[in-house]
Write a structure and sequence with these properties.
The structure is a single chain. This protein is of the alpha+beta class. The longest helix is centred in the last third of the chain and has 24 residues, at 239-262. It has helices spanning 68-71, 93-96, 127-146, 163-175, 186-193, 239-262, and strands spanning 6-7, 12-13, 17-23, 28-33, 42-43, 52-53, 55-58, 64-66, 81-83, 106-108, 117-120, 123-125, 149-157, 179-185, 202-209, 214-222, 225-234. β7 and β8 form a beta hairpin. It has one domain (15-247): 2-Layer Sandwich (Nucleotidyltransferase, domain 5), CATH 3.30.420. The protein is globular and about 75 Å long. α3 (127-146) crosses α4 (163-175). It has six helices and 17 strands. Strands 3, 4, 5, 6, 13 and 14 form a six-stranded mixed β-sheet that branches. A three-stranded antiparallel β-sheet has the order 8-7-9.
Length: 264
């Protein structure tokens, strides 16, 4: 039988402390933890699913819904549903201007180099606040699933994220009620997940093609210690862009078909 912690001062049972490992993704996010006495991480199911769509919908009362509930609103309430918020972190409107034309939600041009803001109804949200809503969902649901108190986390980011983007990720964690202990590069996290650190020394090439980003890194491993030797990536090469290319292709194809039928 395991130990039961009791807070004498409060006269109550103390819940175990858990540090979350969070993959805050462009398309989907997830949380994991390492059970006590074990060496490998386990994904924490959130509302019965291992992954949570990184989508936020604001209802008529401006209450945020996260994940699959929000994703269902993309078709008929696109102006109140935000997706791919990871691409907005640390970015100004001038850096994203060309991309905003195809988004269903409205990104505001405030004529400054500040981080962009998203307009939902009569309210405005920055990417840190939006990312925090996803992190809150992961934190809250993980606490329920594990019956634990969670206030610390390690969050992964693309290796080529600049300091502004990394700080924005930390700020989002803090806003969600989490002390972000470490920010870990995604290629390093992937290598750790596959147990590469236990397979001797040498160089490893890791690539990560995700929903919104593409990341290639060369790591060197020496006695279980990782060092990133080189990295390159593209914040606008991922599943979102493949979807967009397919839509553009078929739109062009359909328009040509329509025009050909109109000709006598």
């Amino acid at each position: 039988m395991g130990k039961i912690n009791i807070n004498i001062a409060k006269g109550s049972l103390e819940k175990p402390k858990v540090v979350l490992g969070i993959d805050l993704g462009t398309t989907n996010s997830l949380a994991a933890y390492v059970p006590k006495g074990e060496s490998s991480a386990q994904i924490i199911p959130v509302r019965g699913n291992e992954t949570v769509p990184s989508v936020i919908h604001f209802n008529d009362k401006d209450f945020p819904e996260i994940g699959f509930l929000a994703k269902e609103k993309l078709m008929n309430q696109a102006d109140r549903t935000v997706y791919s918020v990871k691409r907005l972190l640390g970015k100004s409107y001038s850096e994203l201007q060309e991309k905003t034309k195809k988004w269903g939600y409205k990104v505001i041009d405030d004529q400054s180099d500040n981080m962009v803001k998203v307009n939902i109804g009569d309210k405005f949200f920055n990417p840190i606040e939006l990312s925090a809503e996803i992190l809150k969902e992961l934190k809250t649901q993980s606490e329920k699933a594990l019956n634990a108190d969670i206030d610390q986390a390690v969050i992964t980011v693309p290796a080529y994220f600049n300091e502004s983007q990394r700080q924005a990720t930390r700020d989002a964690g803090k806003l969600a009620g989490l002390d972000v202990m470490r920010i870990i590069n995604e290629p390093t996290a992937a290598s750790l997940a596959y147990g590469i650190e236990g397979k001797g020394s040498g160089n490893v090439l890791v690539y990560d093609l995700g929903g919104g980003t593409f990341d290639v890194s060369i790591l060197t491993i020496e006695d279980g210690v990782f060092e990133v030797l080189a990295t390159h990536g593209d914040t606008y090469l991922g599943g979102d862009d493949i979807d967009e290319a397919i839509v553009d292709y078929w739109m062009t194809h359909e328009l040509k078909e329509i025009e050909s039928k109109r000709k006598p």
